[in-house]
Amino acid sequence: MKRYIGKRLLTGLLTIIIVFAINFIIIRLAPGDPIKTLMGKETDDPVLKAALEHKYGLDKPLPTQFVMYLKTALTGDLGTSIIYNRPVTDMIGEKLGATILLVLTAAILSLFIGTLMGIMAARREGSFIDVAFSGISYVLNSMPSFWLGLMLIIVFSSRLNLLPTYGMTNARANYTGMKYILDVIVHMILPVGTLLLIEIPIYFRIAKSSVLQVTNEDFIVTFRATGMNEKKIFNKYIFRNAILPTITIFGISLAYLITGVALIEIVFAWPGTGRLVLTAITQRDYPTLMGIYLVMSVSIAVVMMIVDIVYAVFDPRIRY
Amino acid sequence: SEPASAQAPAEEKVLIVRAIGDPMSFNPDTLPDDNNYPIVQNIFNRLVKLDTSKQIIPDLASKWEVSEDGKDITFYLREDAKWHDGNKVTSKDIKYTFDTIKANETYYMSTRLGIVDSIETPDDYTVVFKMNKADVSFIADLGWYGTFILPEHLFNNGQKWEDNPASKNPVGSGPFKFSEFKQGESITLVPNKDYHEGSPKLDKLIFSIIPDDATAVQALINGDIDMFENVPAGNVEELKADGNIRLALNEYPSPMRIIFNLKDKAVQDVNLRKAIATAINKEEISQKIYAGVQKPEYNMYPSLIKWASNSEETSPHFNIEEAKKILEDAGYKKDANGFYVTGLTLDVFEGSGYPEAAKLIEATLAQAGIDIEVQVHEYNAWSEKVGTRRDFMLEMQGGFMGPDPAALAKRFGTGQASNYADYSSAEFDALCEQGAATGDQAKRAEYYKKAQALLVKDLPYVPIVTFAGYDANRSDYINLPIDGTGKWGWAEFTYTDLAAN
Amino acid sequence: MERVLELKDFNVTYVNKYKKVYAVKNANLQIQKGDSLGIVGESGSGKSTLAMALLRLLPEKSTEISGTANFIGKDITKLSKTELQKMRWKELAVVFQKSMNSLSPVHRIGTQIEDIYRVHHPDASREEIFKRIEYLLQLVNLSGRVYNLYPHELSGGMLQRVSIAISLMHNPKLLILDEATTALDVVTQGQILDEILKMEKELDMTRIMITHDMSVVSTSCNKVAIMYAGEFMEIGYVKDVLKNPKHPYTKGLLSSFPSLKGEKSKLEAIDGFLPDLSKLYDGCIFAPRCQSAMDKCFKAKPRKLETDEGFLLNCHLYGGEN
Amino acid sequence: MENNKSYIKIDNVSMWYPVKSGIKLFAKEKQWVKAVDKVSLEMEEGEVLGVIGESGCGKSTLGRILARLENPTDGDVYIDNVSTGELMKRNSKEFRRLVQIVFQNPYDSFTPRDTIENILMRPLKIHSIAGSDEEKRRICIETLESGGLHPGEDIMKRYPHELSGGQLQRISILRAMLLNPKFIIADEPVSMLDVSVRADIINMLLNLSKEKNAAVVFISHDISLTRYISDKIAVMYLGRIVEYGESDEIIKNPKHPYTQALISNCGSIDPDEIMDRISIVGEPPTPINPGPGCYFAPRCFKANKECLIKYPAAYDLGNGHYAACDRLNNE
Amino acid sequence: MKLDVKNIFKKIREFIAKDIQLKCGFYGIILLLLVVIFASGLASHNPYDFGPDILNRIGQNGHLLGTNNMGQDIYSMIIYGTRTSLKVAVISALISAAIGTLVGGIAGYFGKNVDQFVSEIINIFMMLPTFFLILLIIALFGNSIVNVMIVIGLTTWPSNAKLMRAQALSLRERTFVKAGTAMGESRLQILFKYIIPNGIFPVIANTTVGMSNAILTEAGLSFLGLGDPNVISWGQMIYSGKAYITSAWWISTFAGLAIVITVIIFYLLGDGLNHVLNPKRIGRGGA
Ligand SMILES: Nc1ncnc2c1ncn2[C@@H]1O[C@H](COP(=O)(O)OP(=O)(O)OP(=O)(O)O)[C@@H](O)[C@H]1O
Ligand SMILES: Nc1ncnc2c1ncn2[C@@H]1O[C@H](COP(=O)(O)OP(=O)(O)OP(=O)(O)O)[C@@H](O)[C@H]1O
Ligand SMILES: [Mg+2]
Ligand SMILES: [Mg+2]
């Protein structure tokens, strides 16, 4: 186990460096640079341009820049945003919470709801519930997330006036304490709801198919033959075996969510890292971009590792 | 029905303005930042400012005069201005601000301040700019980006502005005080009760960040925000029909235009340029893409600045047959596919309706026998290709050409950085120089109109539509920035208040 | 003698959208207390189907069962769900061929055993269970160690023994072993067969042994039923049937087994292959492959010669007129 | 080994697989599965050698090495005094023509996506046997019919799943025969088949090998069947040959305790035959680091302390009968 | 070899009859293909024509589904958009499947060090924040539809590679592969003749899911203003119709609907294939 974790850490690190190098190269090969944003659209003053390039070291050769960046990054310093002139660590730190809140809530809720629906559908395969759930999951799975989000806004905010349109808190009222928490929860309903609708089908499908599969396993027949009642067989044996694929999917979809949430953050003006990336891309804010990629790769690597370990706990056949 | 979220405590007047993104910095002079521009206009003052019609009006300087030779400009400051911490705003602050900018090449106005030899402060409320060249348009530039007056007593501590703590926690002399910045969420300002024009009426001014237009429109409709500058043309009809919302047109001297790269052989023939200009249906573009909000622009200098704009000699009007005739006369022959000219490219960047406009242009040019391929780029990539490498035949851009027609020299003067067309005409340069050297508006208009006539003849560019957009706001608010022509700044909320009812 | 199981015109048919598969047809069979019956037949002849049907483990939606199966006085086919659950394992237990997959891979063996034990003794204490299981494991020559292991930590042979131990948990009246030793090598198989015989004496058990290996039957059973394509061809005492086979199929089957120590006589095969079980045939089902087939074999079902003991011979060569 | 008479010589062949285990973090010694361990055997042309032993004793691994599907970790196999390793290096195709293998599972021996025609044509194509496609097809049909698969034309068009196991196993053998091999390895060729069709397959294999005078290694755990087929029998236990000799001799007069136990446990279909099982106690052994003594010693009913110290040498019992057991002398 | 068309049709019919989802998916795809082939016939207008009818409502002036602000006929745009969507879906999925199959096949079949090395690479690519990478590349290197397809293909292959690797790992132990080796087939012959043809089905099933994702990704890019303006795509119709979502809802709604339907078709196809090709689902003895 220790060795396994060690190995995973090592490959994780390698992954991160490679991800990093790829991004660094792609970003730097790309046309445009942050100087344009800093100079503003209205001027092309070459003196200003040269001065700014020098100031941010963008006039140095690429490999030098990469090594310099890596060096500082290894000390835990992700550098300073060129555009916002703030430590990247601070910027990410402020927004990470919001994204994690959104992503984790959605992931956990969809895990439970989707799995539950999948189990229900599997236990009554071919019934109305199964057909209805499957149909719904197909449709939801096929919707572009941003589109769904916008529709939810129009329906629940504009037409029904039930929920706030955007943001994480009510800008007008500066709530504190319990009220603040409630406020955030109310604001979370739509974005989390959108993510839920997108994610539930994934868990639904995997839960349904693995329950069906485990139900057909030979050992289930053994338990039936012993006269054990179906409820117990299901709750203890089918469930535990069928939950395994879900764990893997949870990891993958969490990783997907971490990056895929950007569109939702834009639609709902949610102050998270996803949006930070998008702005950083358009502004070519290299340090911020690299910083977020780093944080994202690390969190995906960590999530995957945790998932693997959890999996090993649930499945004694896995040995490291 | 009022949505739940809008039911703030009745006695508090909170105005929420939609912002697109985070400000890069709260130091208003280091960078030209569209996102912080409306915010800092409410925290700081300049010597002069622009109102919503983009005309110069007084700010800290209550009046100013230009010397005979045009080289000295003297500003007389109002004496009641105070910093948010209670100190008085004096000429020292002004000298400090501009001296520092000039000394730092990376600050936006630094190069422009190259024409200023020295700044003198005969007394606490008088500032004299001594320049090495007569240029009246300098005054207008002082009302633009990067010219906000900063408090010397807070900044002058040996640290650069970028790293200066005073930049993070801005203390200005404007109507609002900085209160809170939540990155990615909002910027909150509170009124400066001691403001020299009187305390603002609002209890809170919040700039709330909503990146997506569609969401912002919904938020406006739902009352989650109160003001939305420049709503998408597509939403105008709908918002007009909404009784809670008031729309007001906000126009900018920043026309959409097609620039020809005169260095490129492909478009060096003025007849071809004329034919292209004649084959662009500006009316159609205006209607289809901007719902008529952005009007067709024929004048070479934005018609919004009426006194300087030449409406007599303009770029050609749409006429396919005429375009064909121009080509025929110039000796162009049709090829097998019916094209006189092929292989042209038009580089546009994504957004603002530009790609769509380009597509319409492509279609009408094709009717006139001119084959042009539209290439759409992400803004930065476009900027690199077109702005830095100057690698294009035709490109489409916008950009501010106000408030003073001196901008013409910046955009088309020989050797100027922003002269994408690489236009060069000694006559044009001379006219611009004359225009900049005099303070007499009538004379200046004459020079610049002549310069525009030259541009019509040479056609280094074709203006297409004006830039304008509706400001939408909750109709229960009065005295919004848009209402302040001649009275207050273009993003200033000093007098904004709930309508009494 | 006490009759443990009696099948009368027992039929099992798989039904799906496209066709019916007649897997067991008109089976008649009697098993007395203390009997050990071997059911022999080639792959696909319906042996497992019969076993599964006796435990009512086949999905009700896709199978049709008709006829009666009297198991110690009750007709299994008519039992209610609760009666069925009461009967299973306590009175009728089974060991499946694929013991590798017959336990949940993610639960400890002990946990699973406890759960199975508690099906019929819900209030049993851990010690009680452990004692019982330790005894059973000893019977099959395993140490108590396996109690805390996961299935994948055991070899196939050990798992098979665990399965057998579990099947004996409640001293069932009838034990069905469906190819329970087929996957094992001869040494292990011999060991397990020995143990089964030993236990049988100890526990006074009746046993059905499903296999396609004649030698297993010859060494561990007293009666044998030869099955072909869903039908019983010949049933009788092992010593009679194997020594003196009557049915041509039985004969063919026996001559396909070379003798271990005897003369090396030429091996004979039965030509052709198993008929399509989704069709019903008029004549004897074996007729197409039978070397002594006569005209009538193709036209009519042979009359079954049955005796009181439940012995049977299903062939025109021996039957009277129909 | 100076004896040049024998056609095939298996010389001290070993196959050790490293064991992956992360359980012991600091295990210094690498763990090995000694699937085949120092096996030496010889075969004549046309000879049929049976290899028996319990599951996992390394029979298939030996078969794979003989067919050079794997390279042994030690030792080599010689055909006509040429090392097969050398042959493979020099001209792998030639080797493949010389040696063919028939597998246990006929249902899995053919790619399910191809027709029998394509499958049978493959070896001819690879080895450029016969000229035109027409000729190749003719050869295939002839071969099929010679193996009792009529009509060949029809069989050629079918997919593997449209044929019975017996038919498939025939085709599998015929395919191997297409290349006229001189050495055939049959790894449990009938164990997946119904007893009633086994005989045909066995007889066909024997006939073909007689015709072509090819040597056959017949791997099986069915002892009576092996005796029926083979001229010689080798008994394997945990990767080692423990006894070798004429097949009747081995069956009727086994010397090694393991062989004795094996044969005594082998049931007969004759219910009168009295079974006197030698029961072996203990759990089945694992091939991971079995040594150092006799591998069978922990379960052996004759073992004493010495057996646990050193692996016994093979004793020549005359008539080409060998057994590797130190207790033989004491009897 | 003669192609027996009739027979092939019969086989396909039999194959898809096994699963209702497969059937729906299959006929759906046929329908989409027909739309693509006969686009010019089906469309009522030239979708590239900027006519004078601006923002016509449904049915107005002969515009079946109305027009947009540029005067383009929505119905015709949807019809032509099918081309783009299918092109994006199919080509990117093919790229992804081809790379995935090859990489996974090599890793799984060659095994040992090759496998370890390639697996690590697969893992690394699995961990790339794909959407952002796509975004980055498209934003930076131009948003032509060709780039979109290539980038989606280049970033989504790891899941296919994983599937193929698992397949290859088990296939290499299969008898027919060993038989092939014994027959004298070379390693590459084995890879292409045995491993890939027999192991590709999960990849195919997964590829249909990949196609759905490609369509959704293209839409997402369009939403961020990174679609290719030179082609008509549903994603861009949604994007450009966003401003009219409450006033001229038909611009984006039908495009959204088209996406949903197409994606569902691909999902159905994928699920159907999975069901039919995954023998585990078919009752394995007992309940
Ligand atoms: N669920 C099912 N649906 C349809 N037919 C089935 C089903 N299960 C089994 N069959 C068919 O029923 C027949 C009998 O199968 P069964 O498993 O009982 O044979 P068996 O004698 O146990 O064979 P083996 O020796 O291979 O275990 C076979 O032809 C088989 O194909
Ligand atoms: N590639 C491999 N890697 C590691 N161990 C292996 C490998 N192949 C075989 N083994 C091990 O080598 C031993 C011998 O296996 P082999 O398949 O040769 O046995 P066998 O005698 O053919 O058994 P069976 O009768 O079950 O077919 C077994 O313990 C097996 O687990
Ligand atoms: Mg069976
Ligand atoms: Mg083997």
From TrEMBL, chain A:
> InterPro entries given for it?
BPD_transp_1_N (IPR045621), MetI-like (IPR000515), MetI-like_sf (IPR035906)
Mind listing the UniProt keywords for this protein, alphabetically?
Cell membrane, Membrane, Transmembrane, Transmembrane helix, Transport
User: Which compartments is it annotated to reside in?
Assistant: Cell membrane
Stored CDD domains: TM_PBP2
From the record, give the transmembrane residue ranges: 9-30, 96-119, 131-157, 177-198, 242-270, 290-314
- Bilayer topology annotation: Multi-pass membrane protein
Q: Where is the ABC transmembrane type-1 domain?
A: 96-311
Its family remark reads: Belongs to the binding-protein-dependent transport system permease family.
Q: What is this protein called?
A: ABC transporter permease
Source organism per entry reads Lutispora saccharofermentans
Automatic annotation (TrEMBL), chain C:
Q: Which SUPFAM superfamilies match?
A: P-loop containing nucleoside triphosphate hydrolases (SSF52540)
Which Gene Ontology molecular-function terms are recorded?
Answer: ATP binding
| Coiled coil spans | none
According to the entry, every stretch annotated as the ABC transporter domain falls at 7-254
Q: Which UniProt keywords apply?
A: ATP-binding, Nucleotide-binding, Transport
Name the PANTHER family for this protein: MALTOSE ABC TRANSPORTER, ATP-BINDING PROTEIN (PTHR43067:SF3), OLIGOPEPTIDE/DIPEPTIDE ABC TRANSPORTER, ATPASE SUBUNIT (PTHR43067)
This one is known as ABC transporter ATP-binding protein
Q: Which organism is it from?
A: Lutispora saccharofermentans
TrEMBL record, chain D:
MF terms per GO, please?
ATP binding
Locate the transmembrane regions by residue number. Answer: none
Residues in domain ABC transporter? 8-263
PROSITE patterns named in the record: ABC_TRANSPORTER_1, ABC_TRANSPORTER_2
Query: Is Zinc-finger given among the entry's keywords?
Result: no
Ordered alphabetically, the record's keywords are: ATP-binding, Nucleotide-binding, Transport
Family that this chain belongs to: Belongs to the ABC transporter superfamily.
Q: What is this protein called?
A: ATP-binding cassette domain-containing protein
Instruction: State the species of origin.
Output: Lutispora saccharofermentans
From TrEMBL, chain E:
Q: Where is the ABC transmembrane type-1 domain?
A: 82-270
Q: Which CDD domains match?
A: TM_PBP2
The name on file for this protein is ABC transporter permease
Which family does the record claim for this protein? Belongs to the binding-protein-dependent transport system permease family.
- How would you describe this protein's topology in the membrane? Multi-pass membrane protein
Q: Which organism is it from?
A: Lutispora saccharofermentans
State where it is primarily located: membrane
Output the Gene3D superfamilies linked to this UniProt entry: MetI-like (1.10.3720.10)
A Pfam family that this protein carries is: BPD_transp_1
Q: Where are the transmembrane segments?
A: 20-43, 88-110, 131-154, 247-270
The opening ranks of the lineage are: Bacteria, Bacillati, Bacillota, Clostridia, Lutisporales
